[in-house]
Structure formats: structure tokens, C-alpha cells
Amino acid sequence: MKWLDRHVARTVQRNATIENLTFPFSKLRAGQASMLEAVRNLHLKGGAMMVEAPTGIGKTMASLFPSIKALAGEHVRQLMVVLARTPGQTVFQEALKLLEQKGAKVKTLSMLAREKVCRRGNKACDPATCARREGYFDRLGEARGAAIHESPDLLNTTVLNELGERFNVCPHALSTHLAPWVDIVMGDYNYAFDPGAQLSYLFGEESPRRNRIALLVDESHNLVDRGREMHSQCIRTENWTPSVKWLQKNKPEGATLLRQLWKTMRATLNTGSSTGIRIQPTLHQTELFPAEKQTSSIQKTSEPLKIIKRVSPSEVVLEETPKSWGLLMERFLQVAEEQLKTPHLDAVHTELLELYFEIYKFLKATREQGDHHQLILKRHHRHITLHRFCMDPSREISASWKKTWSTLFFSATLSPSSFYQQLLGTSEHHSNLSLPSPFQRSQWQTIIHTGIFTTYRQRVFSYSEVAQVIQITSQSKQGNYLAFFPSFEYLRQVMQRLSDLPELTGSKTVLMAQSQEMDESARSEFLKVFKQQNDYTKIGLAVMGGIFGEGIDLAGKALIGVVVVGVGLPQVCLERDLIREHFDAYGDNGFDFAYRHPGINRVMQAVGRLIRTEQDRGVAVLIDQRYSDESYHALLPDAWPKEEIESSNDLRAALQRFWNSND
């Protein structure tokens, strides 16, 4: 049977199983029915929708079940699930297993970064030196057929690696060629929103204006900052050393071009002017720099340079990339492209290829018009960074999701909705759904301590006070507690003081802390300790917005208390200030967009670790004087049971009242 005939036959069989599919649970959770119906209507009508679904509603199944049912309809041909972090795939894969047990036959592909499935690791992909890429297309058909028609319905890393071994093909390349033929594609945000990693058959320049695809964007609050990263471009001279050394020996012109670019950027930082370069006619015409850029000789010129803001001697904001810099970059790309074709490049191939694409992406982006980006030039010692920073990613994000039939943005924290509507590119014409928490207010208490100042300038005076709050909270009831901090330095200072408290050192208490080097394996070990039942108290210290700030599930007695230090504001920096100025210029509250809303979202995510099931009981203690200001207090959810205090005695009393009523 031909490939397309087999594909059609499998689709017919799939649709039959989907039409007979029933919801895998006998009882719907509070709010789950509303979300199921809203998602079903979204896929029928098309468009975009935001759903704020607090913990406990069962948003994974509420988003996945009606989306799979839509595959048997007329509008949706494929489902794509994108997530902020790889571990998040596990939750969806477990939900898929439940649906498979109910009879669903859907083929799911788990997309992973190349370095996680490639035997060459971080080395650049080079078909000339990789046996699995040489003659790859001769073996692709058989490998693809085995993956779709013989392999398990979940094509994960293990299955892809086995197929790679069996057919001597690259697992990563195979996954990209399998994607158009599966029912569900699951992977990082990059595969839908990053122009350098998007699946081209869905989002590329040659793809249809609108695809028959349903896109589910999990933990969508993360997409704003990730969108900024994806649509910002950066050239870092600290990465140039291996390439410059190799080029100096093998193609001196390439090294000279890089040095000249570095010198002109350094001169801009030093004097506020730029030394331009004119390039001789060997420069080829390209879509980036057409023929009018060519001149007859290499000569130094004086080029006017508009500096919007000089922040410091080592940091300036430019109006645009000087043409002379662009010419140097363009000529370097030509030289690098020629050298990348040579067979004697293995020692520096990865570095030169990465530098090539870094400069290429930057140049290509500078051709785009608009006021959503600012050009930042920075120096750190001898190294220079040229950063085209995206202040507002809404245009780019919406350009991607508008290529789908339907897009669902969902998260436990999408408030205020107007903030996320604007930055995700949805409009007031698209539907929003905000669901109430399924848990009883009596299950927990939010205690807001406004008697401690944690601002950057004053936090040095707060370390002992914060340590005391953690000590009082953890000794109010034996159990497990997490304390979240604005930075690792703040965490270390409080950890030191906690270690010196006689009330803790002389009791059954274990202190643990997140480290800056902690990877996924260490994170799992950290959480495993919390899930062990012991007759002592465990206190974990972590950083807000980090690997423990969201996406962890410590139900029951695994976590009975959370302490959140500060209002979560991102660190003050030039980039955040540019965001503030940008939205101020459009009549919005720039401080809200740059600092306050992202900060409070981190707080809500941290507090969201606490109550995970109907049986959970616990306390959340928020520490910051700024909560006495309505501009911060009003952003905390109305559904939270709150009590404001100002002293340690107040804290002890509030904790005692809560635990007395819940023992």
C-alpha cells in the first residue's frame, strides 16, 4: 500500500476511536465542565482564547480531551502542544495514556532539542562527517513508516533513538520529518514561536496563511518573556576567540573584519562616534544588502551615529545599526560561508557556524521595521554585546498563532487579563475565561506581613527579620515549607542566619537550599526529600521564578507552608527600563508592564505550589511593606483568604488561629 493510502487508512481508524472516546473520569471537577465546553467551542469556531484555570481544576485534561475530539471534526487536522519546560510534557503524556486506555488511537511526537538525541552532542550538525546524515533520505522512508505504523503511539526520545539505531538515521532529523504525519506534536514554545526553530510546514514563509491546526500553549504567562528572548538578537564578541584564531591562520580577511567591527563598536562606547568602513566591489548582492551598498575601495569614513541614550560609559542605546557595521558583518558572512565548506574545519566548525548564524540572524532582523525593538551596545571588560532587544513581542507572537485554526492560551495565572491580552496579541474580540478556584477558602490562609521592607536598598536590614518569620512559620506546625526569595544573594544571607538560630539548630529541622548550578536531576532529588514522610520539619529555600517557582506538585503533607519574600519584581536593568519607557509612550502604565505585573505573577506562581488537592491544608506568608500599597495589594486574587499583620506577635497569633481550626 502506498504511503498516502496508509496515512488515510490510519486517520480513518483514528477518527473512529476518537468519536467513541468518553471522558476518562466519572466525575468532573469544579470549573472543569466550563473549560471543556469553552475549548470545544473554540475549536469549532476558530480564533484564540485565554483561560485562567487555577490549580485543581484539571486544566490538562480539560484542554486535551476536547482538542483530541476536534481531530475527528472538519476544522482541525493536527494538534500541537507547546510548553515552557521539557518536564511539563510528562503531565500531558500521562493524560494521553489515560485516553489511550479509553480507546483513543492517536500518534504523538515528543520534540526534543537536537543535543538531547544526537550522538555528537553539542557539535554542529555536519552531514559530511555524520554517518547518520550521509544518505539519510535514502533510509528516511522506511524509518518513517516504522515510526508511524509499527512503533508505540508515543514517539519519545527512547523510541526515536531506537529508530535511529535501527535504520542508521539521525533521530532529530527524523522527528522533524515525522511531524507532519502525526496527530499530536508536543514540544517547547520554540517550535511554534521562535523563527529559528519553528516547524516550517506550519509556520514557515512557504506555509499556508492558516493551517488546520489546534495550538495549545501551556503555562502561557511564560510566553511573554520567552517571546522577548526569541525575537531579540544578540552578537557577543566573547564568543569570537576560537573563530578569530582559526581565521587568522587560514583566512586573515575574516579575522580582520571581526576585529574592525569590534573596534568600531568600542569606539562608539568610548567617544560616541563610529568609524565606518566602505567595502570594495567583491561584496555580492544579497537580500540583506543590495547593490547600492557597494563602493569602489576600502576606506575609513566618518559616519553620523545617533545615540538615543548614554546610560553609562559602557552602555548606550542606538537608534539603528550603522550601515558600516552591517557591511562588515555582511562581508564576514561571505568569508565564513566559504570557509564552512572547507574539509579542514572540524576543530572550529561548531564555533564558526554558531557565529555565522548569530550574525546572520542579527542582520536579517535589522531589515524589519517597527518600534518594538531597541538597539543596545554594552561592554564588559574587553567583551562587547550588540543587542537588538524586543520590548513588546505581541506582533511576533500573534503572527505565529494567527497561522493556526485555533489557539488556546491557558495557565493558572493570567491576571490581569488586559496585560496578557496585549502582550500575547489577542484582542478584546477573542474570548477569555477566568475560572474560580475549586478549593475551599477554609483550606488555607494568606498572611500578609507588611512590617518588613525588602526593597533592594533596604533588604540588607531585613535578613534577620525574614529569617525570624521563616522560623516562626515553620515552628507553628511540623511539616514541610518552601521559602521563595528575589535573588540567590538574598537567599544565601537568610540561609546563613537561619543556620545560626538556636530555635532551629536545636530542633528537628532540616534546611535545604536551591543552588544556581542545580539541574533537572538535582531538582528531582530536592523534591524527593519533600515527598518523604518524616517526623521532622524541612525548610527549602528557593528563588522566585526559578525551577521551583512553578511546575512542581507537592500535594498533601509534602508541603504545608510557603513564605514569599518580596513582590517578585524583576531586577532593575536597562532592558526593563526600556520596556517601561516603551509602554509609557503608548499611554500605558510602563512600570506595570515592565516590573509590577511580572513580579506579582511570580508571587502567585510561588503561592500556587501550596494547595494542590481538596485534602491539602496550609499557610502562605507574604513579606513586603509594599503590600500596604493598593497598587500591589489589589493585584492579589480576590479568592485568596487574606489577613494583614505587621509584627512577629501578630504572625504567631494568625498561624495559631489557622492551625487550631484545621487540626
In DSSP terms, counting alpha (H) and pi (I) runs of 4 or more, how many helices? 25
Give start-end ranges of low-pLDDT stretches.
275-301
CATH superfamily of the largest domain: P-loop containing nucleotide triphosphate hydrolases
Domain tally: 4
Describe, in plain words, how this protein is organized in 3D.
By secondary structure, this protein is of the alpha/beta class. The chain folds into four domains: 3-106 and 183-230 and 393-434, Rossmann fold; 120-182; 233-390, no CATH class; 441-662, Rossmann fold, CATH 3.40.50. Helix content is 43%, strand content 17%. The chain has 25 helices and 22 strands. An eight-stranded parallel sheet has the order 4-3-5-2-6-14-1-15. Strands 18-19-17-20-21-16-22 form a seven-stranded parallel sheet, with helices on both faces. A five-stranded antiparallel sheet has the order 7-13-12-11-10. A hairpin with a 2-residue loop joins strand 10 and strand 11 (315-318). The chain is globular. The model is unreliable at 275-301 (pLDDT under 50).
